[in-house]
Amino acid sequence: MAHILQTSFLPFTSSLRRTPVSGPKGKPQALQVKAKIREIFMPALSSTMTEGKIVSWTKSEGEKLSKGESVVVVESDKADMDVESFHDGFLAAIMVEEGGVAPVGSAIALLAETEDEIAEAKAKSQSSSSSSAQVLEEKPQEKEEVAPAVPAAAPVAPAVWSPKAVAVGSAVHPASEGGKRIVASPYAKKLAKELKVDLVALVGTGPMGRIVAKDVEAAAAAGVVAASESAPLPASPEKAAPVAPEIELGTVVPFTTMQGAVSRNMVESLSVPTFRVGYTITTNALDALYKKIKSKGVTMTALLAKATALALVQHPVVNSCCRDGNSFTFNSSINIAVAVAIDGGLITPVLQDADKVLVILPLAAYFFVI
Predict the structure, then answer these.
(1) 370/228 Cα distance (integer angstroms)
(2) Does the keyword Transmembrane helix apply (predicted)?
(3) What is the number of alpha carbons within 13 Å of residue 75 lying toward its C-beta?
(4) CATH 3.30.559.10 occupies which residues in the chain?
(5) Of 3.40.50.720, 3.40.1190.10, 3.30.390.50, 2.40.50.100, which CATH number belongs to 37-166?
(6) What is the tens place of the pLDDT at every residue in 268-291?
(7) Residues spanned by CATH 2.40.50.100 within the chain?
């Protein structure tokens, strides 16, 4: 047996014995736990998003953050998103200010685990490359140039963030009130509703005059109450026309993220050859149907979208495309898109498999509740 134990397959018996641990007996070794400084990254809010714009920070440097609390509002191509934290800590340093643009995955702020780490985190943000904070006119740089150098004493761990979409142009937050256009971040609108602050009476300090959360908080402290909560005012005989904001001639105003996406798509659409065919048709049956279901909220746009989908079923060649210049590709699905104008941009919701929608009401609800 001893001969077998000394072979190359099994170690010798003495090597299987546990090595004694040095140190005083009966006293456990103290484990030193170091606090972490986490990087807050620009989240990817969609599969096509390459960069994001900081609309507003809902927290200031030094403020405590709780798990699940909103910390920043990010603007993507089509919507503003409230970004929440999955970690407790302190917002130690903001690396991309409001109105700045940063590529997806780059650091936009630092989150300290304890209050004692705030000073160290600020020092790291100041020593990091300025490429982590992009201005609107600059192009995004590579992710490696954005990540700040971190010594081994305080390892940086990525923070997990959960983007929470906020609908743009919904009925909950109307685009205008009393004839005056209101441009405010979704978080500012939500905060104004909670604090009962009248957004019409506020002047935004955010990018391009946008109302941000800080404006609402300042108005709440000053006692600006919403019009529905205040005493009713006597009706004026004449309603003054809204005054357009003064813009100096020759001023270059950069695109918002949404306007940039719309511009790119419009330019790309010019490369697609198009032609139009016009016919005069009788719509008596369509008009009769519209009168019957109009009271239920169905619009003519929804009816035309459904009619278009049914027409493409009968004429699939219209739903085909020429990709290589030598053949036709017949699409396997029929998708209908309808352009919808909202404040400061344009979105195009797409109804997948429109020909398979059996009931008109869900079709109308899809386009006008989205």
Answers:
(1) 27
(2) no
(3) 25
(4) 284-369
(5) 2.40.50.100
(6) 888 877 778 888 888 888 888 888
(7) 37-166
- Token pair of 65 as six digits: 């953050």
pLDDT of 207 reads: 67
Q: Rounded CA gap, 21 and 170, in Å?
A: 66
- Helix, strand, or coil (residue 52): strand
**CA–CA gap between residue 310 and residue 303 (Å, rounded):** 11
- Fold of the domain built from segment(s) 284-369: Chloramphenicol Acetyltransferase (3.30.559)
Give the closest residue to 182 by CA, choosing from 131, 154, 216.
216
Compute how many other C-beta atoms are within 10 angstroms of the C-beta atom of residue 352: 11
Which bin fits 279, alpha (ψ -120 to 50), beta or left (φ > 0)? beta
Q: Please return the burial class of 217, using the count of CB atoms within 10 Å of its CB with bins 0-12, 13-18 and 19+.
A: middle
How many angstroms separate the CA atoms of 93 and 118, rounded?
Answer: 8
Residues for the chain: how many in total? 370
